Amino acid sequence: MDDFFFSLLLAGISVGAVYALIALGLNLTFWTTKTLNFGQGSLMMLCAMLTVFISSQGLAITLAVVGSLAIVAALGMFIERWTVRPALESSGGSMGWVVSTLGFGIFLQGMAAKYFGSQAVAFPDVVFTAQDFVTVFGQYISLQYLVVLAVAVALILAFELFIRRTVWGQAVHAVSLDPELALVQGIPVRRLILGSFMLSSILAGVAGVLIAQIGGTVDPAFGFDLVLLGFVAAVLGGMGSSLGALAGGLLVGVISKLVGGYVSTAAEHGIAFALLMLALAVRPQGLFGRPEVSKA
Amino acid sequence: MKIDRRSLALGAAALTLPGLVRAQSGTIKFGFTAALTGPFNEFGEGINRGAQIAVEECNKAGGINGRMVELAEVLDDQLVPDRAVQNLRRILDNREIVGLMCPSGSGPTLAIADMIQADGRPIINPQAQTPTIVYPNGPDKPPRPNLFSISIGNLVESEKLAAALSEFTRIGILHESTGYGVTGADLVRREIMRRKPAARVTVESYNQRAQDMTAQLVRVQRANAEAMLVIGLGADFAVIRRNMSRLNINLALFGAAGAVTVPYIEGAGDLVAGTRAVNHAAFGRRPMHGAAQKFADLYRAKFGTDRWYGPDAANPLISLAGTVGSGYDCINLLIDAIRRVNSTAAADVVRALDQTKDYEGATISRISFTSQNHVALKLEDLGTYEMLKRGDRVVLELRD
Questions:
Q1: Is residue B13 in a domain?
Q2: Helix/strand/coil for B358
């Protein structure tokens, strides 16, 4: 395979896998509450920054990651309870959750700048370094890229299995279809919603750690752009579909890199997004989404 | 009581120029807007620290002809041009401010340049690199009358970088998509082509804070580049260096002064070894000249061996000159000009700055301006450094 094409493909798949994780996180809360947590970017940043902070206190990097994920999971609960639930409970079908989740994200950014400083800080290598690689059929493949891909794909597949094969997964599915009927059936809707926000935050945290490892630095403004790309991946794949999130993320990543490599790096996102708009014009429900039918 | 015409005229003048009258008493006030917070605050907070040291040093020595100096307006713009404009409006509304320092970047400085020129008060640029800041109509035309610069300007830097790259024929330039990056890349490319018309230069851009630069790097690699120059800031340079390693791209790597800062060293770790960069020569020479050593000692005494200074007490980071020392020099130049003319009137201070000759700054050993030349840095003030790993530390060694 052409080295040039292969390098672009691998990088596209790797960053696309991160977009897919973000998209899955957005899907999760969309299923249970029909809302999106626009503070996901700040949770990514916070998890990465907390990992740096905790590991700098002498704790092993894996424990630092686990501890940071636990903190962002708790923040996920907080977001559901104090930013989303009040907006949904208000009369008139308020869209206040858009502002409150975004606002909470900006608040987290500010707090991170105050307590960790606003400059970029070095992010430690979690599993492999940028110099670690394997050679497959003469192609040089970075192990960091492979880890990002493997973790993202494993999480998404595990999640798909959870939804399809477990009782709790079926319960989530039921809530996504009709939360009121699910409540009447005895499904603990409130706990499921809370759990979806926790899990969504954990996914954001994992994505943050993975991408910070690629870049090597993290700062309080980290993550905001990535959420936009994750959102695009979710819509392209079909809002609410796990496999759609994976396909959408990979597609956004690969198209961006190929456009950047073969056309122009300045147009990397511009042309890629134009292609995606075209795809959505042809298939508005996204690649794996189902068209919504409203019954009178 | 008899009031003559002369007294009336003086009284009227005093009423119409209250700022001038107030400025003649009390402290002598300076002001500036800079990126004190935000992802680029290594520059803004840096010049703030340099300015603080200069003010404290001056006041400890008795002030300017007996009057103390003060940083009366220090505002945060986070390197956002709009915010810099708002801040400068507020600073200029304070008629007691008699001298200013430009923001810490080309975008905000370009945004405020016309406003400050119209106001007429003296301002000195510590860090912004774009030449149009000083020479809006081209470098061969007169400068803005009240705007002076001690920064590493793109013009001089491009000459030094082109000289450092002269051993290569196929060169890649990776630059950030800001005014600083675009202008810098264009000037270096032109200078390379002027020196070596057969050279092949591939230019690629990236957005600040991008997390993956694979597309840019493989394009440079496909052009068979032997060397690559990065014009951008440290955190992005770290992403590029790590990305190069993941793609197994091994080119001779060069960085502009803004790129070889602490975030690059921290973010890229051991990978920085071998990187060559252009920066102030003053902090790489041993012994350092008097003003540079004095500034380094003052900084260490006030702030310790911190992120800006670096861990080695005897050898401050080279980037300390550009990030902090330039702020120290700007305020000292204003102080020196006011002291020489014994006036804080804008026209007098600007005239005195125009006559600055061989002033010993910390970052530039001999600073001179004339009415036609408002840029102090010359080619010999820059050095080419190589980053080396010594034990667990990264050091920059002056090569040229």
A1: no
A2: coil
Q: For residue B246, give the nearest of A8, A142, A211 by CB distance.
A: A142
**DSSP labels, B136-175:** TT-TTSPPPTTEEE-S--HHHHHHHHHHHTTT-SEEEEEE
B392 has a chain A CB within 8 A of its CB? no
Are residues B245 and B392 both part of a single domain? yes
ipTM over 0.95: no
CB < 8 Å to B271, chain A? 130-131
Q: Alpha-carbon Rg of chain A, whole angstroms?
A: 19
Which of B205, B247, B267 has the CB atom closest to A216's CB atom? B267
Helix axes B81-93, B106-119, angle to 10 degrees: 30
Evaluate whether residue A203 is within a structural domain.
yes
Q: State whether B268 and A113 contact (CB < 8 Å).
A: no
**How many structural domains comprise chain B?**
2
Binary contact (B211, A142; C-beta < 8 A): no
Asked if B177 lies within 8 A of A266 by C-beta distance, the reply is yes
Q: How far apart are CA B125 and CA B376, in angstroms?
A: 10
pLDDT digit of tens for each residue in chain B (400 aa)? 444 555 544 444 444 444 443 445 689 999 999 999 887 888 999 999 999 999 999 999 999 999 999 999 999 999 899 999 999 999 999 999 999 999 998 899 999 999 999 999 999 999 999 999 999 999 899 999 999 999 999 999 999 999 999 999 999 999 999 888 998 999 999 999 999 999 999 999 998 888 889 999 999 999 999 999 999 988 899 999 999 999 999 999 999 988 888 889 888 989 999 999 999 999 999 999 999 999 999 999 999 999 899 988 999 999 999 999 999 999 999 999 999 999 999 999 999 999 999 999 999 999 999 999 999 999 999 999 999 988 888 888 998 8
> Is B212 close to A217, i.e. CB distance below 8 A?
no
CA A250 to chain centre: 13
Across the A:B interface, residue pairs with CB atoms under 8 Å apart total 114
Domain with B344, as residue range(s), is 22-152+310-379
Domain count, chain A: 1
